[in-house]
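Table S2 (text version). Query chain:
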Amino acid sequence: MLTLSRPDLRRVLAAAAAAVFVIAGAFIAFAMPDRADAEANAATVAQQVPTGELTEVTDFGENPSNIQMYIYVPENVAPNPAIVVGVHWCTGSGPDFFNGTEYRYLADELGFIVVYPSVTRESKCWDVASPEALTRDGGSDPVGIKSMVDWTVENYDADTERIFATGASSGGMMTNVLLANYPDVFEAGAAFAGVPYTCFATDNGSEWNNDCSSGNIDRTPEEWGDAVRANNPDYTGPWPRMQTWHGTQDTVLAYPNFNEQIEQWTNVHGFTQTPENTDYPQEGWTRTFYGDAEEYGVVEAISVETDHNVLTAGMADYVMEFFGLTGAE
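Corresponding structure-token output:
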């Protein structure tokens, strides 16, 4: 498998101009752990995978759409580790997201586990449109991803209060869906070039919604928030925090979807759409904060002067800070 140092990867990502990140990598077959090592672990472990390698896991649980699970467990995995679910873009795969983003290096530094779901359907896009996908436990891809999380919690005694999702493009859309379907599972998400939950909904079997992708669906904050609440009518716990990123010149998933996501997640949390604060972390970035969280914010939105390829080198550090995994100030 091709491996890059973190500085080398930063240079590769910063120079990339393609519509997606695709770096070839060999698939690594799932392997059973050494039984003695597993039994020596402080946690009660059913099965584990090799550390420091991207590994495919099979038979991880309910999986109605036959997606694949890849996992990266760092050699210095923390006790009761956090889990980050990294969701790839259209035409991509779990190994592509592993190779093309910085989360594996951050996992090495910080000791969390990364789960990389991978689509098997021909389009290599996530189902964020069907009624099944947009319903809690309704079927399709979100159910399989939830099973991956459950498998990882069981096998690594992971911290159920530190489970996060992040993704780009189709993966950014799926991040919105995962948080809306499973607010009791995900503590926070970071969506790059995504759209609000239910924006992409179709009822004709199509995977694509032109009205949403073009930014022509404009609902009120309450309507967006009601969609999430209706999916979880009996839920009384805290709602996931959301960090959303979008390029001002995005022509694939148009920039108005950025504001619609802000409206959805601020309304879910009961906030107005007036920022509590605004700053400019880097040239061409405008970051707005919503809500009154003391440390990492509740809803955070970063507008970047770029196109659809908004996820570039260094941004994962801001994701880690928002998730609360770095201890950053």
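Notes on Table S2: The radius of gyration is 19 Å. The chain has one domain: 6-323.
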